[in-house]
Amino acid sequence: MRSIVKGSVGTIVGETTPTAFKFLISKEVGRGTYIKAKGDGREWILAQIEDIKRSNTAYTVNQLNDAARNYDSREMMIAESRVIGVESNGKLRLPTSPARPGESVFLADEKLIKATLGLSKGDMYIGMLKGYDIRVEMDANTLVQKHCSVLAKTGSGKSYTAAVILEELLDRKVALLVIDPHGEYASMKEPNNVGDFSKYKVKPRGYDITVYTPGEMAMNPRADRPFRFNSLNLSAREVAKMIPNESSSSGQLGLLYEAISALRAETDAYTLEDIIEQVVRSNSKVKWNLVGQLESLLELGLFSGTATPCDELLRPGRAAVIDMTGIIPELQAMIVARLLTDIFEARKRRLISPGMVVVEEAHNYIPERGTGNAASTNIVRTIAAEGRKFGLGLMIISQRPARVDKNVISQCNTQIIMRVTNPNDLKALSKGLEGMTTDLEEEIKRLPAGVAMLVSNEIERPITVNIRPRKSRHGGVSTEIVSREKAKASSVQPARALEKRSRPQSPESSGNEKPVRSKKSQSSGGLLKKVFGRA
Ligand SMILES: Nc1ncnc2c1ncn2[C@@H]1O[C@H](COP(=O)(O)OP(=O)(O)OP(=O)(O)O)[C@@H](O)[C@H]1O
């Protein structure tokens, strides 16, 4: 056997192929380490250690080999390595012939890793390659245009990582619209004060964030402004989108179309109140159910006051955060449906800036078939399929990959995967990702918080990244349950009331009874109005 070459970490042994080789380890290396060996053309082949096996001929399965006196000298460590490729003129290719047994293996240097993996093509700094001092940079334009997803189990650092990407996009003057079900993104206004900033060379700062609430301002201390829709001349389709699917029968929808056509024939300008009055005038038996739903819509306050203009929501270098805290899921999906339809239409007509729509807890807004229904599914699918043409990108964030619409996920060119352990979610990831191996699946199960696997057409193979500290303050903090028992008890009451009252009518209702409008609800809007409010 050849003597060990200085600086090498091992020698190639056994059978090799253009895509894999094994080497006998002479210096400590670990799984995931990037290594290099000379190919036949004397160019460097970059490979990564996938697995390490240890054996010792002195210890066989059947008996100890007493003839072997020096047990330590008989121990062997074999590293199984997967070839990533050979870099030539900025392009990656597989070596034409397999690496030669007997060749020395070295640790790969930073330059080779960056060039071969394609890590320095971008301008967005999201973190460091795990185990290395190598910055991972992604291309902002590609990420926005070709969409992106962040998928991981809860507590793994999903929203933290999403915010890191949003910071980079805001630094590059991208306009962002964030659908934020839990009010986690308002804290981006403030600079971060926890993290190893010097190691990652990050400077804390706050961003230009405006938080909107579709509810009442007084109920959401984070909100800067109310979010309101225009109630003038609503089309039947627009109104229908805001009414829960399961409770609006075809008879009621027909009634809605009739009422709005009659109004259009009479006047140039009508409001939601006018639609309600018109429906009341109908002779239909099912009208009261529809009236109930329309009145609930009116009471939410979403259609009162000044409508929020679309061009205010997408502004370069700023993020508009729609904070959905306190709004029931069904209504959230309807708000998202209408909002994104307006944004997409305005963008198609070039009336607003290009930008990116970020959908947190995406399984609620675009549920996979069989796992639920949401009014917002179609428009999010449309943006995923056509947004690129019109400069509207999409970022999908979810803790339940298996419950998110596969059509949308498959349109995301960049996938950021953090720790996932649920077997259904892992299966969904495996199905949706090219090149997913059982080894990668195992790795995903074991990723620590704050470490992400980046899969993208822009990089040559999935890489693991230590996500950099945030520049802005993180807002996704878990609530302690035990020590806050009292606070929890006092907060249960309004939440329940909210859910109960915001449903237009009970499922048992026949649809023929006139809904009771209490004096209080007519004058001040009652509890519903208190919770959701008017502008
Ligand atoms: N790159 C990171 N650097 C430092 N801390 C991190 C990093 N990523 C995550 N964390 C920490 O891990 C915790 C969980 O992160 P985060 O809130 O983003 O999780 P999540 O997956 O979004 O959870 P949830 O689904 O509950 O919102 C946070 O307290 C955060 O401070």
UniProtKB/TrEMBL annotation:
Helicase HerA barrel domain residues: 9-85
Region Disordered, residue ranges: 470-535
A matching Pfam family: DUF87
Recorded catalytic activity of this chain's protein: ATP + H2O = ADP + phosphate + H(+); Couples ATP hydrolysis with the unwinding of duplex DNA by translocating in the 3'-5' direction
Domain Helicase HerA central: start-end pairs: 125-342
Domain of life: Archaea
GO molecular function, one term: 5'-3' DNA helicase activity
Residue ranges, compositional bias (Low complexity): 521-535
PANTHER family: HELICASE MJ1565-RELATED
Family named by the database record: Belongs to the HerA family.
Protein name, per record: Uncharacterized protein
